[in-house]
Amino acid sequence: MRQTLRRRLQALAAATALGAVLASCAIPVPEVDADPAPTDPVPVLDESRLERVLTSLEETIAAADEAGDASLLEGRVAGAALRIRTAEYALATATAGEETPYTVQPLTGLADVEIVSNTEAWPHTVMVVTEIPDGANVPILLTLEQATPRDSYVLTDWVRLFPGVTMPATSLGSIGSPQVAADADGLVLPPGQVVPAYADVLTNSGSQYAGTFADDSLRSLVAAELAGLTTAVEEAGTVANTVRASDDPVLTLATEDGGAIVVGATVMLQVFTKTIEGATLEVGGRLAALNGNSEVEGSLTATYEQMVAFYVPPAAEGAQITVLGGEHVLTYVAES
To answer: Considering its fold, how many domains does the chain have in total?
Structure first.
């Protein structure tokens, strides 16, 4: 028994010695260094993912356009873009029997220029200059936003670029463009003040901001439309025009020269008031179609929404904000 115990102790000692030898001969496991954190900003979407987003958006819009049903846009279209597309369907229906029915603005998801933000914080912004859609004669600037990591990218605005307009240069797609804070300084105006200032210009001919913006087609259109309406109704009443910034936040991306592309929306109210007793105040076209009749007994308010894109340059003597494009749609008519 003692011999058996002695053999076991000898075996245990031998195993312990062998373990020590193996440990001393073991090859150390190399430590794997973690990938270094990227030092340069990267776009929030790569080209293939953006293409999938745009394809899905185009398919959604095409289905809604075919049905004339704005509910089919939910989840892919929001904000001013959703309100205006909804109004376009209503206009198309109301004018369907007329000689010149309203045509819904053609859109496409085929990208020509992609401007992708490189911010790490949400929301994320993407702007796309499209190819010229079928049935149109100018490219479209689309703005898309992802509110949180769990949300899809949604179309918030589209803007028809004015003929001959030159888009400001932005960073390459492999780098991405920073988003610009609404209160950023160093620009002709901070981005958050651009839309209210432009709304003031559209409302007041003597606006303090009149010289801040270069002349543009939308501004000329609004002024000419108001002048024509004033002449048309002067024997029966008046028409007043006011414009304000919508409640939608602006979307911004930086340009290479330190400026910013700013996209936002305005709301315009045209109020027709009958002021001469016994006279007949009439409206025509799309106003009459949405109102259900042409004669105004008291007053009629027409609401338009505009989606507008701006290039805001760095602050410098004589620098002006350029309006890159716009969309102007009658969205609502109410008589009182």
So the answer is: 1
Tokens found for residue 19:
């373990």
Q: String of b and e for 67-102 (b: at least 16 CB within 10 Å)?
A: eeebebbeebbbbbbbbbbbbbbbbeebbeeeeeeb
Residue 7 counted as domain residue? no
Q: Is 23 a member of any domain? A: no
Gyration radius of the chain over CA positions: 31
State the number of CA atoms in the 13 A half-sphere of 295 facing the CB: 4
CB 265 within 8 A of CB 80: yes
N- to C-terminal Cα distance for the chain?
Answer: 115
Distances, alpha carbon 128 to alpha carbons 27, 39, 216, in Å: 55, 26, 21
DSSP letters spanning 251-271: EEEE-TTS-EEEEEEEEEEEE
Which amino acid, residue 44? V
**DSSP code of residue 186:** S
Q: Which domain holds residue 298?
A: 47-335
Dmax (CA) of the chain: 133
Per-residue DSSP letter, 121: S
Give the model confidence (pLDDT) of 66-85 as tens digits.
999 999 999 999 999 999 99
Q: Kindly tell me if the per-residue pLDDT of 130 is higher than 80.
A: yes
pLDDT (tens digit per residue) in 22-54 = 344 445 555 555 555 555 678 999 999 999 999
